[in-house]
Amino acid sequence: MTGLAVAPSLVVNGRPATLRPDRARRLSEALREDLGLTGTKTGCDAGDCGACTVLLDGAPVCACLTPVGRAEGRAVTTVEGPGLAGLRASFLRHGAAQCGICTPGMLMAAAALLAEVPRPEAAAVRAALGGVLCRCTGYGPIVAAVVDAWREAPPAPGPAAGAAVGAAVARVDGVPRLTGAALYGADLWKPGGVVLKAVRSPHPRAAFAFGDLAGWAAARANVACVLTADDIPGENRFGAIPAYADQPALAEREVRHRGEAVALVAFEDDGSPASLAGFPVAWTPLPAILDPAAAASAPPLHPRRPANLLVEGRVRRGDAAAALAVAAHAAAGAMRTGFVEHAPIEPEAGAAWMEGAVLVIRATTQAPVMDRDETARILALSREQVRIIPSAVGGGFGTKLDVSLQPLLGLAVLKLDRPARMTFTRRESMQATTKRHPAAMTARIGCDASGRLAALEFDGQFDTGAYASWGPTVANRVPVHATGPYRIPAVAARARAVHTNNPVAGAFRGFGVPQATLLLETLIDRLAAAAGIDRLAFRRLNALAPGDATATGQLPGAVGIGACLAALQPRWDRAQAEAAAVRAAAGPGLLRGVGVAACWYGCGNTALPNPSTVRIGLTHAGAIVLHQGATEIGQGSDTVIAQIAADALGVPLAALALVGPDTALTPDAGKTSASRQTFVTGRAALAAARALRAAVLRLANAGEGATLLPGADGLRVAEDGRVALLDLAGLQPDAAGYALSATETYDPPTAALDADGQGAPYAVYGWGAQIAEVAVDAALGTVRVLRVTAAHDVGRAINPALARGQIEGGIAQGLGLALMEEYLPGRTENLHDYLIPTTDDMPEVEAILVEVPDPEGPMGAKGLGEHALIPTAPAILNAIRDATGATLAEVPVLPHRLRAAIRAAGGGR
Amino acid sequence: MDVMHNFELYQPGSVADAQAVLKDNPDAWIIAGGKDSLDWFKDRVKQPPALVDISGIAELHGITAQEDGGLWIGATTTLTEVAEDAAVREKFPMLAKAAGLVASPQIRNLATLGGNVAQDTRCVYYRDGFPCYRAGGNTCYANTPTAMNREHTMYEASRCVAVTPSDTAPALVALEAVMVIQRGSRQVEVPASEFFIGPEIDITRMTVLERGDILLGVKVPGKWAGSRQYFEKAADRNVWDFALVNVAMAARTEGGKITAASMVCGGVQCTPRRMSDVESLIVGEAPGAELEGLVKRVAARGARPLNFNHFKVPLMQNLAARAVRSLAV
Ligand SMILES: Cc1cc2nc3c(=O)[nH]c(=O)nc-3n(C[C@H](O)[C@H](O)[C@H](O)COP(=O)(O)OP(=O)(O)OC[C@H]3O[C@@H](n4cnc5c(N)ncnc54)[C@H](O)[C@@H]3O)c2cc1C
Ligand code: FES
Ligand code: FES
What is the reported pTM? Predict the structure, then answer.
């Protein structure tokens, strides 16, 4: 029998390895910490995500729930192990890794299957991958990659010069995500530092007082220090929108939401248990506002925000009430949505240290420049004293736009003058970071006798939680988008962001628009029924056309909704016929339904500047370097922006050396949000590339038609059969240190909204529509989405494969919103009570890329990242109503809600 | 990185060795697959000083045929093995199905049948370390006017309203399995129907297992081998989710009539609930729409739902009716 003291030895990736003699530790931790095999990821430490999947004697297991003693004498294979080349190549071909944090787990689960079944069917793959969650891809590309892994396809040659845009090139950042080499927030740390743990509030609102902090710390050998708000040297406030910054890095005297941090403990990073047990803090719970409807009459949580109103946004055009009074048909209804958690598989994580006088923070983020500015302010440093280098980012979807652990890491490093690292537990990540706003909405919509929309009234209350975060953005964006992509002459729309003591609601793919669209699109179905018009025909009749003004009085540059709906028509006809046939043939109980919904979405900030700057340099050796600061969070910006730059320069994509975001090296490309990177940073890249090309041609004394030929020994310029090597050696380095460089900024032209919400809030809009086909088990109240057909106008598909990936991933999140995701503070703070879709929940997806070029976009391109999830949930609700007759006024449609709605609609038991 | 508490981990090679360790360390905690246990230790809700890993004990592992046509399934046989074993699939397909619907492939590869039946309840309040009755306190946090109790019980609540989350438990009760326990020097046999205990018997445990007991395995008798069987689970997510309600049924039919039936429902009571009313209703009858209607009427008789789990009543009725419908073809 073996006891505690013996160090377990095992075989890892074919080589013998000995671990620290603590046999009850998690295998995942031992692999990562003892052996430095950080390719094995941890997303939950609870068996809920599968990111930590490794093979134990060939069988996939969760390393987080495997004590190392169990691996004694056995063979462990991780993503760093041998034999994965074919799978990796297939993953790359199929775009199966977006952010890549789930990829090691997926590869290991797939490898185990392929060892038994070399050419598996899709169903077997889905079952085998059923224990790994992916939040980005919607699983389709992953399943396809595993099915196809047996095929030995030679790597596709890169596109020729000028042909990168429009080509489905593999991600330029793909390979490290497939080998386990990409370093995410939890994978980067310096030895000899400290590990940070935050002390968080168990109450939604409470006063607190510390006991003997020094005594508590002194009694524990591994506590280096305890830090509280009193230790913060600068202004203890952060917030995505500077005018509303109200959130402390560590709370002062009072906490305003469950999970808010009050203190930070730095533990020695030596593997000793980092236990907060007995931490001396006394809580005095205070009356909390948990119901946003009660917020108006409650004492304000923040000074200068009476009635707990953060921001109210409005759009008013024509006289909606009067038009509704005379409308031939009208529909009215309400919709409620809950908190939705982004659930990136990578929780917040990062590390920090000093390099000379500069605080370096490497953490997972979507907004490095904002992180720098806010961390500097909190720590009373200059911007130059803080350098943010994003780690690889394991999913964001909006939640990593706000600073989380950056100021905390910085505080500890400054205090101790030692490196520090911090990784949120899944529970912390769920408690402490932002959520999608819960909405309580009502609306009335009317049309004339021929089905033409006449008027819309919309009112939405959005629970913005304890702090401002992106609440103002939601309140302003929702009324602008309330009409959907439809021509409605009379509109009265307003949205209020209201403070409560609930979790902070912030940015989440769509900024409130998915919630509003749920109500609008379900009402449109009812209105179409009242008017006796087919639901798709009704939408086509009312879709905005070129020359139509939006509710803010703007004429969008390119309008693609008509083309998207037209693309769906044959699929709609097929789906309707199929559902009717199934209904006729099937027995009672299993019901089929079809639904459709549409969306539009403005790319970039709402009527506010949001510039991006891109630099492209030519070194004295003739190498071309693209500095682009758009943070890659899996959506593909590294690749897309390089494709644009390569074509504009006229060189092959492979000729560009890429420098990613680093606040010391890369100009500000703004944040990865609002579907703005392809459009805004893409435009800046286009301009910088054109400017550099012009400079090169000038230097070579060549005309516009000349060809640039990058090579290992320098850059050549060819014209009229003559080829000349550019002589760069003699040029003075410019300010950026290059022989030649170009730095260009682009800021989308918008016009501010007036008091009635009239103006031009966005320079570019994207458009889309989706059909959902569902099967409903009315007896159990469960729903299976069988197929989603999505048509999205992207203007120009810079990279069709990446665009499809965004669509599939958006659909997965829309499906979660519709059917299963609901965050309840204190109740669903893990990934088995908070459910996100698995492989088995995903429908077959057909993505149709529609290209109506926008004159403002780079090569016509529009944004897409957020659009894809907006129509999914309402299309599913419309399909459920089609199947059952049930009108749903709340999501997610869990079995108990669906049963109740079917009952209310007079359906059977 | 979630640093765990330091445990002593023992890995005995025999039941006798395991017993010796358990005797020397009265507070030691048995782990088999560790899938339930490690979750408990994570947030340090429970901190035993030592763990006894029984997964290496050969005599506890494996599936063997019994003389009566039934099977012996060792306690540390994994759920994957139970789900994929040819004999289990042939004789007791509903047990294979129940095991195959637990959690995810990765978890089933290490989780054991013994651990699955001996796992603790998933009540979120209890798991979160609230000082509830079950945890030695004097409140039930799941049974207050505002408590979230969608997942909780409808029958035989006694202070505590938690349910057993095990999917294999209703299948084993329906198959009239017998749990074999090593208690000191004795082997004790307990019918599955008595193995799971409710709060009225002992609020701190979900099973009859006492400290120091080792579940050796499960005898599934030949009685229901090869019978018509049905298992279905209703959950919020299609896979990798605990059941809201599940149903397990074994039955025999002859000449279009049901001659014998054993039906058990999970997720509605602290222990798997035997559907005696349904059983006596259907035996002697022919399956069909009429019988299904009657089944729905009696299936949830006596249910006393909490604030948020009324929907379990139709779930229970419809699952029972569907099980009966499966006998029609
Ligand atoms: C993410 C996740 C999802 C899950 N989903 C489901 C689900 O859908 N359905 C379901 O039924 N379960 C589910 N579970 C629970 C899981 O099936 C059980 O946790 C697992 O089967 C337990 O087996 P184990 O061997 O790992 O148990 P362990 O964790 O090793 O043990 C569990 C308990 O049983 C005791 N024990 C184990 N073996 C013996 C023995 N031989 N003698 C005495 N005591 C013993 C242990 O002391 C411990 O108290 C899920 C768990 C996770 C983590
Ligand atoms: S980290 Fe192991 S399953 Fe999530
Ligand atoms: S690619 Fe799967 S989680 Fe991001």
Answer: 0.96
